[in-house]
Amino acid sequence: MSLSDYAIGKIKNNEPIGFDEAMALYKDTDLLALGQLAHLIRTRLNGDSHVTFAIDRNINYTNICISQCKFCAFFRDKGHKEAYVMDNVTLEQKVIETKELGGTHILFQGGLNPDLDLEWHKEKIRIIRSLGLNVHGYSPPEIIFFSKSWDMPVPKVLEELVDAGLSSIPGGGAEILSDRVREKVSPKKANTEQWLLVMKSAHMLGLKTTATMMFGHIETAMERLEHLFLIRELQEQTGGFTSFIPWTYQMGEHTIQVEKEGTNSYLRMLAISRIVLNNVPHIQASWVTQGPHVAQVALHFGADDFGSSMIEENVVSAAGTSFLLPPEEIIALAKEAGFEARQRDNVYNIIG
Asked: Got the DSSP string for 118-148?
């Protein structure tokens, strides 16, 4: 019996697979067969009748960032003519509009800007909460940056932000959880251990978080799978991850130039993510990078969540990739793919 066949048997018996088994599946299994295995796990965890989606807004409070990651087309240096820090009036307008459009939360993230102190951030969280929306905010690299800038332990930073009203934490800034990769593409940002520390600390405080992967730049297949197993291991300890969102690297004019990952590569990575992360409840399709029709297919390759209607998105679009998808279109796309769409909030509670 081949290692792939052995892994398939374990999956059908609802057993977690090991690293070597995952690698064999990832490299050798037919794409459609891999998708069927992923869909089997998706059905076990979430049924096969519905798909969830959120209505939110991605508010990037500043594009000034000292990290200067080599894959990012969004950041600007302080003093650049396009550099900005969002003011309270603009924030309030965006939050009010989001609520009027049926939104439940704000995805609140920004560059690593040393001029913004703890009180600045707490004020912004309070504004969002006072207007009736939850705050799904501050990725691990931001928290690590705050910890260093404010000379404050990570758990204390999180406690301060929770005290102001932080609801949950997005899994951004993970890219690939390999320090070899991170030292080349984002050397000024949180390393693998620090990213995991933030997530573990958040989970210990009762905060739910997501996890992500941006693949298709300089990482190897082994590093992709190592990333998945690090997430699975932490989930075994804490149970705090609500979902996993893999997406392909989007090249900008001045970012790392590589051969673009195609649809088959994306679906293969999505499927193996669902198979390996059998203890993470949800897998999200990335229509933002793949477009709505590939996202429909992804719903049959392990994904059970269509992500957000994303009233506003700035980071991916800065690299030249831009899709717009209002809620009614998500509902129609899900129906066309054979599912009923249900709206959720930032921690995957069904609200509609």
From this structure: HHHHHHHHHHHHHTT-EEEE--HHHHHHHHH
In terms of residues, how long is the chain? 352
* Contact assessment for residue 42 and residue 295, using Cβ atoms and an 8 Å cutoff: no
Mark out the alpha helices in the chain (DSSP H runs).
3-12, 19-28, 31-46, 88-100, 118-130, 140-149, 154-164, 179-185, 192-204, 221-238, 263-276, 287-290, 292-298, 315-318, 327-336
Neighbours of 62 (CB within 10 A): 20
φ and ψ of 66, to 5 deg = -85, -10
Q: What is the pLDDT of residues 35-63, one digit of tens each?
A: 999 999 999 999 999 999 999 999 999 98
Cβ atoms of residues 299 and 67 within 8 Å:
no
Number of Cβ within 10 Å of residue 44's Cβ equals 11
| pLDDT digits 0-9 by tens, 131-184 | 999 999 999 999 999 999 999 999 999 999 999 999 999 998 899 999 999 998
* Rounded CA Rg of the chain: 19
DSSP state of 303: -
**What single-letter DSSP state applies at residue 261?**
P
Return all residues near 39 (Cβ < 8 A) that are at least 6 apart.
48, 300, 301, 302
CATH 3.20.20.140 corresponds to the domain 49-344: no
Handedness of CA 123, 197, 110, 315 (dihedral sign): negative
Return the SS3 of 302.
coil
